[in-house]
Amino acid sequence: MSIYFKDHPEFRPNITPKEMFKLGIMGGSYFRKIKSPKTKKIYQNHHKHFKFLKDIPDNLIINQEYDKSVNYYKVEVGTSYEYWMEKNWIREDIDPYGWIEWYCNFYNGRRTEDDTRQINRWKKSAGPKGRFKNQLQNKVNELRSNNEKIYPRLRQTLLHWAYDSRKMKII
Length: 171
Hints:
By secondary structure, the chain is mostly helical. The chain has a domain at 17-125. The chain is 32% helix and 2% strand. The protein contains six helices and two strands. The chain has helices at residues 17-23, 81-86, 99-107, 115-125, 131-143, 152-160; strands at residues 34-35, 42-43. Strands 1-2 form a two-stranded antiparallel sheet. Strand 1 and strand 2 (42-43) form a beta hairpin. The longest helix has 13 residues, at 131-143. The protein starts with 16 loop residues before the first helix and ends in an 11-residue tail after the last helix.
């Protein structure tokens, strides 16, 4: 089952932001205190804007250091905040933490000029033709198994893109 947004039917994640954090993503450090390498502005406590995160333990949201043991698949994936900024993956004026913050806001009903770009990024990663999703789907199909031990790093990456691969069917 996927989530449906009437105004953007092409965007169909299969887990909510709350489910992402509850499962364990980003080493528990996504909403940590950060300093922008571009503007030098300090950001913190952005998670408090989202009532749906209030019952998620802090160690799953605001660890200052990345801790792979809190990730669902117990692996480290991803790159640094500085790298994200260098690649212009973050619109600091809209969501200074990046894609997951955007998804939290979008899920809550906020719409911005950045929606199309962020949805396209999701589609390229975890959408129907997304590279990460299709790579795992091909392996699951080949092995005729959706065992969670298959490609744990790829599965963790997909969780960061609001896609729970445990729901993947063998086709």
